[in-house]
Amino acid sequence: QVQLVESGGGLVQAGGSLRLSCAASGSILRINAMGWYRQAPGKQRELVAQILSQGMTNYADSVKGRFTISMDNAKNTVYLQMNSLKPEDTTVYYCYTKLVAYSSNQYDYWGQGTQVTVSS
Fold this sequence. Notes:
Number of helices: 0
Strand content: over 45%
Order of helices and strands: EEEEEEEEEEE
Shape: elongated
Number of strands: 11
């Protein structure tokens, strides 16, 4: 019954900004981590940014200093603020979460993906 809903993707010019949101809902007891993956043309899928429940974060080298991940724990929502966007950031971004359900079982869930397009 857990689902992730992504929003905030779109078209922006190089140097511009976008803010992605991902809200988790359902029978969630605890969220251990949330973040985004992406897969650029000719590349393997990579972890863009991740935030743990304790607040620790990590980023891909290619986005450090430009992207910021944050979480609203009360709403089970994670945000990715993307600044100084480059054309090479163009791809589909997939939200994910690692969580514990009411059953005490651990699960991984993926969002539907949101398109980010950066024009020159």
